[in-house]
Amino acid sequence: MNRHWIWLLALLVIAAVGTTWWAAQLPSASTPGPAANIATPHWVEESQCQGCHTAAFADWQGSHHQLAMQPATEQTVLGDFSGQQIDTDTESHLFLGQDDALVIRTPGADGQSADFKVAYTFGLEPLQQYLLEMPGGRLQAHGMAWDTQQQAWFHLYQDQAVDHHSPLHWTGAVQNANFMCIECHATDFQRNYNAATDSFASRWQAPGVGCQSCHGPASGHLTWAENHSASKPEQHNNSKGFSANPSIAPTAEVEVCARCHSRRAPLDDGYQHSNALMDDFLPSILSADLYEVDGKIKDEVFEYGSFKQSKMHAAGVACSDCHNPHSGELRASGNGVCTQCHNGNAQPIRAAIDGSGLQAKDYDSPAHHHHPNGSAGAQCINCHMPGKLYMTNDLRHDHSFTSPNPAQALELGHSDACLGCHQQVEPAELVAQYLAQYPDAEPRDGGYAQDLSAARDGEPGAAAALNRQLARDDQPAIRVATLISELPRYPSLAALQQLASALQHADPSVRVAAANSLPALASETQLADLLAPLASDPVRAVRLAVAWQLAQLSAQTKSGLTTWPTLQAEYEQVQNNLLERADAHFNLAMLYQLSGREDRVEAALRAALERDSAFFPAVIMQAQWQEQYFRLPQVGLAILHKALKAHPGEASLQHALGMALVRQGKLADALPAFTQAHQLAPNNPDYAYVLAIALHDSGEPEQARELLRQQLAADPANRQLRLALVSYLGGQDSQEARMLMEQLREQNPDDPAVAGR
């Protein structure tokens, strides 16, 4: 059997899937639970805050935070429910006022139109969404939203063929507000999901984001205030560690805001105010699918990731230096927010902010921005915080505070404020104008974008570029984590040593990235030795990353790790806290298989598909499990064919079908499936790699080589594709093969495949 097939067939599961990134949850019953013990910190009615904190309470009234979620009434619902009908590309929706209720007549999960009651509003402007009541305590976010500026209905997924078969349909798991949204729209939200009945008994203290959402349970503070204590509130801590002083230090503020203003995966049912951010959530790094190569926002990532990499954050600037945290409004109008620090005095607004990088300069002047005063180009945010539209009409500004760099943007292919605004000007002319106006302009990121682009594109010196950026002592931790995640593409002893060092980094996001990257470069023994000390890491996200990597080691290796049972139990408990999600059941199925509990795998996979029938990793593993564990290959094929009938355009199912047929020795039958998978997902290098192997072993070696050439041209950093092509060229004897290996040497001279040759 071809060695490539041996490697591929050794994999039981094609891809492992982690928990979803959304951290907000949704409720269906708002009645608070019984009163908590007075000795235990607990939530209180927030109207009690008003007596002492009058100004803050007044700012909060009417804010986006306060009105983030409201019971649906004629006063709170902004959309037109007078009988208007809206037809989208796949469905028809009618908005009605009916018997003192507001309803949407819309296709349900079965595709049949029915009337669904609007229970809550979501958001205020520029759009408002609506949560519809469903059985089992579910609240579902409908795909139709009201544009408060245009005063019109629009669909969030218009022209994307969203109907009741689609994962994006309002009745599906992706739109379940209990898990996806309400945690960030209500105070003290608890999902209260019952896996046995597949239902929610969700609750919250109050709809909307209130005082305690950020400051924590206020019972201790109220007790101190009611006793008129002469001492300072921070001197009164209870046994649970909650201070009677609910103020938030600027150093902690960014993490508090990040609970909602970040792209993240939840690790539990809600969060604890005494926890670090990464005890309750796993924020995303600056991956290529989410962020541009210079760090600006690309996908819907909110503010945290971009701000964490900014010079503002490094200097100690906190969210509330620019935003009134209670009203959500800016501290000043126009450029006034920026000129609080960036002015002729070069003095920061707080002593704790490092002002060493400030220059005494009139930034609010045409001499700096080279645009007429009052124009869009004269506004700081338009050049240094360019925005993008999300959810169709919601403009959100980037918070990495980059400077325009049209020349670099053209070279690397990222967006740029100058290019975006002056689209009528030829790019070369615009670059010349920019350099004439800013002759001393140079990248403020120390070449980070250039070097990261070189690493991702497999340019000569790619490994050195990563090393250069990782050697900097001023690199923001989120960028370090991002760079660390690129190291597996450039294997070497030095890269392994860098990962070993990163496991000791002060920032937990770097430790997580190092743990996830390590298996690509380390042997099983090295992996166990390096990861074992992190079993007692103080941050839960790190321990979970370590647990998953150790779970994949052999039983013999794990038996020598005294900490493994504890790590496994914690990983399993986190998945059990998220059982409303298909991916949590899938993760459990993977863990059961890896830990020798095969009798529990099938039930976990069934539970995953009961939560989301279109969760394709579970479909694929279920088919493989029938084939390999129960020795029922035809049953496995039937599962895949059934799924493909419902989702013919899903590349992962086509690929899995091809793999199943190969395992049955039916390469000729598998080839069309592999071809279809590649056509459906042409940028997936794994599908192209497998198709090339199939073509080669089917007697089409030149087609295999040509496919690898094309794919490698699009992804020069892909070492697997490169070495496969060299192999299919007959080793390193041909001129083309020698050229390919020389390119690999230029990328990474320490690569084991070229080192010493």
TrEMBL record:
Gene3D superfamilies per UniProt: Flavocytochrome C3, Chain A (1.10.1130.10), Leucine-rich Repeat Variant (1.25.10.10), Tetratricopeptide repeat domain (1.25.40.10)
Domain of life: Bacteria
Mapped TPR repeat ranges: 651-684
Domain Cytochrome c-552/4: 151-216
SMART domains with a match to the protein in the record: TPR (SM00028)
Record's signal peptide: 1-23
InterPro entries, A to Z: ARM-like, ARM-type_fold, Cyt_c-552/4, Multihaem_cyt_sf, Multiheme_Cytochr_ET, Paired_CXXCH_1, TPR-like_helical_dom_sf, TPR_rpt
Residue ranges of domain Doubled CXXCH motif in the record: 317-345
Keywords of this entry: Signal, TPR repeat
One Pfam family matching this protein: Cytochrome_C554
GO molecular function ontology, one term from the record: oxidoreductase activity
Protein name: Tetratricopeptide repeat protein
